[in-house]
UniProtKB/TrEMBL annotation:
Organism, as annotated: Bacillus atrophaeus (strain 1942)
Name of one Pfam family that matches: ELFV_dehydrog
PANTHER family: NADP-SPECIFIC GLUTAMATE DEHYDROGENASE 1-RELATED (PTHR43571)
GO molecular function: glutamate dehydrogenase (NADP+) activity
Keyword Kinase on entry: no
Protein's name according to its UniProt entry: Glutamate dehydrogenase
Domain Glutamate/phenylalanine/leucine/valine/L-tryptophan dehydrogenase C-terminal stretches: 217-458
Subunit structure: Homohexamer.
Keywords, ordered alphabetically: Oxidoreductase
CDD domains tied to this protein: NAD_bind_2_Glu_DH (cd05313)
Length: 460
């Protein structure tokens, strides 16, 4: 097989022309879907050397095929609130690519959910799932329903209505949803109960993120946050750094953020700040995880309540200012595009050494360029936050075998998967002429497995 050095300049130019042509076609076809286009561009920008070295991907028009979902489902979700009024939300499920396995990806319940958000998440999921080494394809879904401020009864009635329609399109060997923003153990439980009632059988593998009491995997709740820290631990180690003694800022205060904070603290870091959609807290003594877990996971309170119990901490309205707090390591674990170019420059000026993306696409393309140009160690989302879906795939395996693995075994498998993702991404970056660039490396490593499967399976 020829090396990258053997590729002719004319082949590189032909590949670049193909990438530009396909991206323009995607842009014209999806003109108002900014998040989806951002995700496509970030992948496509990495692939020119791959396409130059593998012209069979151009021959089979892999880019145009991979950027178009196999299926996009939109549906009405009517439900009755506590006042007896009928409310209507919109549901989505994108089944993006099944070349290497059944569709796999979370459900997000948040007012911002629309077709563009769903497609960007589903597109990212293709490559993230490929990186895990597990046999799972890419999908995503959700609704513009907001569970905040809703009673348990309202959430239950909404999720039951949502599943009544979604159940037509999912199954253990077809499409396996999980949780995402706004969809935790409560919502997964209601969804699973409704699916079971409709189908009349116990198909444990149809959803992941379930309670361990009815088929869920231990460590699933912690997996994305733990996985992000495991990935960054490898990156730091290769560059002579460590979490030990480092100051860490984490955005968000959901599962990803809380368990990234927990694992970073276990490794000796001082985690001084986190946020929610209303604002952020800064505690120079280190955030009390016990208080945070109780407020967010048990009592479902806003983060502002933290300072009532820890008056030495500061609460600041507005979450974006969190990136002005000096830190050694930044872990954006909240939502897409939360770090823009301005925030990235502030982090750099304040001495950040590493950024690990625990959320999906939390940095804009301009922010990523700031980190790259300033030699900041950067763990991109599709690699660094793959821990959640990795343990979801392990949950599917346990469900298929009618087994439940102990927490230590699942955690060890997760750790190994994240190390392998890091190494595979570094190897791909080196092989294709961008040593140390994990954005490029993760994109290429994730793409190759899916592209080869698509070529082998013909036009599907």
């Amino acid at each position: 097989m020829p090396t990258l050095e053997d590729v002719k300049q004319s082949d590189l130019q032909a590949a670049a022309d193909y990438v530009n042509k396909v991206y323009k076609a995607v842009e014209q076809r999806n003109p108002h879907e900014a998040e989806f286009l951002q995700a496509v561009k970030e992948i496509f920008d990495s692939l020119t050397p791959v396409l130059a070295k593998h012209p069979e991907y151009i021959k089979h028009n892999i880019l145009e095929r991979i950027a178009e979902p196999e299926r996009m489902i939109t549906f009405r979700v009517p439900w009755v609130d506590d006042q007896g009024c009928v409310q209507v939300n919109r549901g989505f499920r994108v089944q993006f690519n099944s070349a290497i396995g059944p569709y796999k990806g979370g459900l997000r319940f948040h007012p911002s959910v629309n077709a563009s958000i769903t497609k960007f998440l589903g597109f990212e999921q293709i490559f993230k799932n490929s990186l895990t080494g597990q046999p799972i394809g890419g999908g995503k879904g959700g609704s513009d329903f907001d569970p905040k401020g809703k009673s348990d009864g309202e959430v239950m009635r909404f999720t039951q209505s949502f599943m009544t329609e979604l159940c037509k399109y999912i199954g253990p060997d077809q499409d396996v949803p999980a949780g995402d923003i706004g969809v935790g153990a409560r919502e997964i439980g209601y969804l699973f109960g409704q699916y079971k009632k409709i189908k009349g059988g116990y198909e444990a593998g149809v959803l992941t993120g379930k309670s361990p009491g009815f088929g869920g995997s231990l460590i699933r709740t912690e997996a994305t946050g733990y996985g992000t820290v495991y990935f960054m631990q490898e990156l730091l180690k290769d560059n002579g750094l460590t979490f030990e003694g480092s100051t860490v800022v984490v955005s968000g205060s959901g599962n990803v953020a809380i368990y990234a904070m927990e694992k970073a603290a276990e490794l000796g870091a001082s985690v001084v700040a986190c946020s929610d959609s209303n604002g952020y807290i800064y505690d120079e003594n280190g955030i009390s995880l016990g208080t945070l877990k109780r407020l967010k996971e048990v009592e479902r309170h806003r983060l502002s309540e933290y300072v009532k119990e820890h008056p030495q901490a500061q609460y600041v309205e507005g979450g974006s200012g969190i990136w002005s707090i000096p830190c050694d390591i930044a872990l954006p674990c909240a939502t897409q595009n939360e770090i823009d170019e301005t925030a990235a420059n502030i982090l750099v000026r304040n001495g950040v050494k590493a950024v690990g993306e625990g959320a999906n696409m939390p940095s804009t393309l301009e922010a990523i360029e700031v980190f790259r140009s300033n030699q900041i160690l950067f763990g991109p989302a599709k690699a660094a936050n793959a821990g959640g879906v990795s343990v979801s795939a392990l949950e599917m395996a346990q469900n298929s075998a009618r087994l439940s693995w102990p927490a230590e075994e699942v955690d060890a498998k997760l750790h190994d998967i994240m190390i392998n993702i890091y190494r595979d991404s570094m190897t791909a970056a080196e092989k294709y002429g961008q040593p140390g660039d994990l954005v490029t490396g993760a994109n290429i490593a994730g793409f190759l497995k899916v592209a080869d499967a698509m070529v082998s399976q013909g036009v599907i």
